[in-house]
Amino acid sequence: MLYHHLRNELWKLFGKKRTYLGFGAFLLAQVAMLLVFRLSHWQNQMERMLGGNGYEARDYISALTVAVVMLIPQVALLMPLYTALVGGDLVAKESEDGTLRMILSRPVSRFQLLFVKWLAGVVFCAVLVLVLGGTALGFARLWFPWRGMFVFAPGMVFNVLTATEGFKFYLISQVFMTLNASVVLGLSFMCSCFNMKPATATVLALTFLFMNLVMEGLPFFKDYQPWLLTHYFRAWILIYEHPTPWDVIGQSLCVLLAFNLTTFLAGAAAFQVRDIKS
Q1: Structural domain that includes position 50
Q2: In this structure, is residue 119 part of a structural domain?
Q3: Average confidence (pLDDT) over 223-241
Q4: Beta-carbon neighbour count of residue 235 at 10 Å?
């Protein structure tokens, strides 16, 4: 029964046009960024940075390097936007359309209904990240060779890897990005469990995230960064550091999983006491 319920939720989710907004935005952003890489002095700046640290630049200006460079801004800005958009729709849209009362007339508990909807959202996050990572690497490979990887994120990572190592860590990082996406989706999903419009749920979730992001960037909030959610989203990029800080990554995973569970339970508690009206 759970399988059939999940299948139906996935059909509904991927049958909506707005579900594919994120996929289209990622493709347009990646094409635009690749054009900028080819037409600007980005490659010269990268070569100077590598040469200044004693590395042969031509060995690391590659498809893997460009793919990670493209992922960093998209993971930070675009992915939260489109996962929050879908998460805010999962419950609130059903209520707005007046279909929740009909759905709950069937022999299914409210908790199971929410769990299946949340699970469908996680599947969407996994598919979105898979497409994001796959297209970034695929487009980069069209214009750049398959060589070693250079990863640079100010204050976090500066490392070079062989093509084999880089591809392995690239695949592992997709798992951490999926967790980040599911956390954002879970936050907007929790908001949509309350009596509010889908757009309101999405805006509330994004407001919370951007407040965290802004405070994290303020110098006098540096001591309070461990209390900010976005601080733990960095686990996907820390995977490229040498040596890999597994203790920091493990802490981030625990916090993100706990936050995901908390938002789901809070949303479920609010939904249990709601008076569903058509």
Answers
A1: 2-272
A2: yes
A3: 88
A4: 23
